[in-house]
Amino acid sequence: MADPTITDPDKYRVILENERVRVLEYRDAPGQRTSPHEHPDSVMITLSDFRRRLIGADGQTRDVDIPAVEVRWLDAQTHSGENIGETQTHVVFVELKQSAAADHGESPGPS
Amino acid sequence: MADPTITDPDKYRVILENERVRVLEYRDAPGQRTSPHEHPDSVMITLSDFRRRLIGADGQTRDVDIPAVEVRWLDAQTHSGENIGETQTHVVFVELKQSAAADHGESPGPS
User: Fold this and answer.
1) CA A11 to CA A101: how far, in whole Å?
2) In chain A, which ranges are continuous DSSP H helix?
3) Which helix (H) or strand (E) holds A92?
4) Is the Cα torsion angle A100, A103, A106, A109 positive or negative in sign?
5) Backbone angles phi, psi at A96, to 5 degrees
6) Which of A47, B51, B66, B84 has its CA 20 to 30 A from that of A77?
7) Quick count: other Cβ atoms within 10 Å of Cβ A35?
């Protein structure tokens, strides 16, 4: 598991963690790039406007322009990225863990 | 279930929903208050500084001052709130659902 806090500890930091989620803050400057890393299913909340080149696990690239205060779903994926804009990137990722019930293979009871 | 999008539709809106999460945006103005409503386990991300009076299900009140870009865990709870400050409140809630595996009482497989 290429955890982004291991591959890019200067850009990713854990700001909250419990049994259900881990929340990461990401910051970079123009020209900086990340090493390939994995994200589990996550919700991404942008806190700055930014322009990035995303490089998928298959090597395909895609350029994105995303405004501040945008909320997007991120399916689990491996990728790397490069800040190709002129602004800092500032993003929060809410990473989802399996629920405690699912981890233990238990029924959560009546629903 | 006192869903905040039902009790306070002028302040809460759904900005993303799938099997694992529902994401709400909340906005209000000084002096406004919400009706009692329920939150499931959630991650709260503040997008403005604000000052609020929170009223719990037991009637206890608690005043909070929270700065912008604060990320906090919210255990499932019923409450209402009142903007007692001089600024708008702007918050995103990432509400967690049971995982699909937990909903069906199935094991998610080896972990």
Assistant:
1) 32
2) 4-7, 100-103
3) strand A89-96
4) positive
5) -95, 135
6) A47
7) 12
Instruction: List CB contacts (< 8 A) between A99 and chain B.
Output: 98-99, 101-102
Contact present, B98 and B108 (Cβ < 8 Å): no
Are residues A92 and B107, on separate chains, in Cβ contact within 8 Å?
no
Share of chain A above pLDDT 90, in %: 86
Query: What would the CATH number be for the domain defined by A4-98?
Result: 2.60.120.10
Nearest to A92 by CA among A55, A19, A56, A39: A39
Closest listed residue to residue B74, CA positions, set B101, B34, B37:
B37
pLDDT tens, A14-40? 999 999 999 999 999 999 999 999 999
The ranges assigned to domains in chain B are 4-98
**Chain B residue nearest residue A14, CA to CA:** B71
Q: Residue A83's closest CA among A36, A35, A51, A111?
A: A51
pTM of the model: 0.88
ipTM: 0.87
Look at residues B85, B86, B49 and name the one whose alpha carbon lies nearest to residue B70: B49
Task: Identify whether the C-beta of residue B50 lies closer than 8 Å to the C-beta of residue B70.
Answer: no
Residue of B nearest to A21 (CA): B43
- Give the span between the Cα atoms of B78 and A74, in whole angstroms: 29
Pairing of β A12-17 and β A21-28: antiparallel
Sheet architecture: strand order including A12-17: A12-17, A21-28, A89-96, A42-46, A71-74
